[in-house]
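Quick one - first record:
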Amino acid sequence: MKNASLNKSIKHVNSAVKELHQAGLDIVTQLRSNSTSLFAELVQEGEAVQSRAITAVTTPVTRLRQELSQRVQLAPKVDQAREVVSDNVQRLENVFQEQFGKVLDFAGLPSQAELDRLNTRLASLRREVTRLKRAA
């Protein structure tokens, strides 16, 4: 009676381990199948952001160049232009990071924390199976 209960527990734990393992494999399969299209989307979005950023940077810089050519004091305007370019580059980086995060969320990719919890649970179940096998 005790062995039947123990065998049933072992089968239950083994089944849970197999389900977790399959879930991990399913995640890897999904990542592989989505990686090409995800990369293409990221490249496309990056190119679009880059184009908008170049336009956003070029227009103020062009105006500033025209203004600089009319003035004798160049140093303060050059510094101002550097600040504008630096600010726009920072904005570009922020937009790209935000878009990249949205793509990852949209793809349904698990977070590192979720993967860590899954690995911890899997390790715990493996230890339990080993303990139950030894007890049997």
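second record:
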Amino acid sequence: MHNIKRNFDKIYQTIKALNLPDFDSEGNILKVGRKPKLSDLEVISLNLTSEYMSIDSENLLFKKIKSCHYDDFPCLIDRTQFNRRLLYCGFDAFRNL
């Protein structure tokens, strides 16, 4: 499948169905502060979508989203914030589940 949004939706629903204890009902890691535009589970799902679709770099992923799927991701964050949030979520530990 070549549709980023469709793949993202499938991966996001699958992860959300796991009911992971570290995440609240909105898909964010339990922490104090303001609510982010893109939830932590959405950030993880977007990264897994890029890996599933063999998109090797975040730069290419964000170019594709901005050129073809910008309306599908209205709350898209910038790449720096994307990478920081992946580190904060402990994505490497999540990947090893």
